[in-house]
# Entry
Amino acid sequence: MTAPMAAADELERTVKEYNFRGVMIRGLTQDRFLDQPEFAPIFERAEKLAVPIYLHPGLPPKGIADIYYSGLPNHSGMAEALACYGWGWHSETALHVLRLLYSGIFDRYPKLKLVIGHMGEMLPMMMARSERAFKPGNGGANQRTLADTFHQQVHITTSGFFTQPPLRIALDTFGIDNIMFSIDYPFSTNEMGIEFLNAIELSDEHVAKIAHGNADKLLKLRI
# Structure
């Protein structure tokens, strides 16, 4: 990622030679979000190859960690929980996606597909409020509404969020066609995931979409 053109070339190589179905990018690169111009080759290539980008959380930059996650009792253990799996990972990834929206990345690459985990990284809960804040014409480069953009280009995974209330709000905001089942080991277990999947109170058709159908379509797993 520190050499975006080389990263784009490597993405194309793995897709064409090894049948990779997408690419995962882990958080910030040298403290920079992906809306910065130097990362354009990666978006261009992913769109051209018709493969999704999975935006995974990463460790917070040192400056952020020093301000937000230091000075706590039992500092090392509590700081890790706050900075990563307990809160920080999810809020930073949500911020990352909103920056991509605001900077017009989705409109520049309208066939690009983005995947985020953890039942939408807080975005379903914030959808209506963020929708008002980032209306087209409010100063950003986005030409479409947040909801339209997310429905057309952003897919979410369950990854470790295995209770029904987060699923319900994800269904109400992202919709049944944009949600994919995943586990998030070692932060959750396979058994937890199966229990959650079996407890979903939807039609068999809709459960099948979450369990595999949506992933089959997005990743072209079944011809």
The chain is about 55% helix and 10% strand. The longest strand covers residues 23-26. The two ends are 31 Å apart (CA to CA).
